[in-house]
Amino acid sequence: MTPRSRHLRTGLRTGLGIILVAGTLLLTGCTAIVPLEPSKDAANPTCADLIVRLPTSVASLPERETNAQATGAWGAPAAVLLHCGVTVPVPTTLPCLNVNGIDWIEDDSEAPLYRYTTYGRDPATELVIDSGKVSGSTVLVDLSKAVSAIPATRQCVGVEDLTIPTDGGPAVPAP
Name one Pfam family in it (predicted). Predict the structure, then answer.
């Protein structure tokens, strides 16, 4: 092999290497990882059952990679964030919506960001949805199948479903 052919061969390898590295960076660099913190109970095996069932798109938004266990994100920039393993909510006066058999507590105190937390499921799952970019109802429908991997142990009730004891004790569900 002549010095010139050796030089050409080395140049081709170097050029091919640069092209491969650049192509990899372009493919992976288009959407950065969404930085999230894991929830307190993120290591719960039931969260793993939910996470493996997450859809690749939600409300036509593409799935994003996250850096925390038991989380999910969709949209660029992320408009839907999911955390499994959040604190199980106690009864509340916040509105409760049932979407495809999943009870969600709706908190609109930070609108246009809406926070939805599953009710009656342990561990609980929380969604933060930017309602300026995506429809909350569409997101809840799209994620209902995955969330149903966590069995329901109770369901939301309305004030009309409660019995208020005459002795001043706490209200309880009517029989």
Answer: DUF3515
